[in-house]
Amino acid sequence: MPAGVSFAPRTLLIGFAAAYLSVLTFHQGTILVLHLLGFAPNFPWSTRPVPAFGLPAIVQLAFWGGLWGCLIAAFRGMFKPGRPRLIYGFLFGAIVCNIVGWYVVAPMKGNPSPAFGLATMWRGLTINGVFGLGTIVFLDLFDIYFRKRAPASSEG
Q1: 3-state secondary structure of 121
Q2: Which of 36, 52, 54, 86 has the greatest number of C-beta atoms within 10 Å?
Q3: Beta bridge partners of 49
Q4: Structural domain boundaries of the chain?
């Protein structure tokens, strides 16, 4: 495995939590801003039930975001702390999440790929890019929190 890549359960769990929170704040906050500016048709934080389990749309969206967060967290160690990681997070969300959404998820749902509609395309790139950036922000905040809570090592 390349240096900096970790699939340790703790890394994946923290990645899930960071991305779950990023969906609720960064992702949905971006949709709110775009909606208020007239660029997004739907209001964020939808509680409408969605198939297959009838869960609110926001819960399902946050769950899938959490799974993306596991992947982001696993590969985050390959990038230096600070701004480069924020760029990595934005690009991961904007590019990887959208490609999967356009060419895997949309056809599975029987929908045409929205990738070729310019309005849909830039909106998705922006929203998912901010989601990825937000995931990195939460991962870095968790790092700070857990570092402060870690017991001091006593070397004697």
Answers
A1: helix
A2: 86
A3: 56
A4: 9-147
Is the four-CA dihedral 58, 60, 62, 64 of positive or negative sign? negative
Query: Which residue has tokens 């070729």?
Result: 116
Q: Show the tokens assigned to 103.
A: 């060419």
Per residue of the chain (156 residues), give pLDDT as tens.
788 899 999 999 999 999 999 999 999 999 999 999 999 999 999 999 998 789 999 999 999 999 999 999 999 988 877 678 899 999 999 999 999 988 898 888 888 776 667 777 899 999 999 999 999 999 999 999 988 776 765 554
Helices (DSSP H) in the chain: which residue ranges? 9-22, 28-36, 57-76, 83-91, 98-100, 106-108, 118-149
Coil, strand, or helix at residue 25?
A: helix
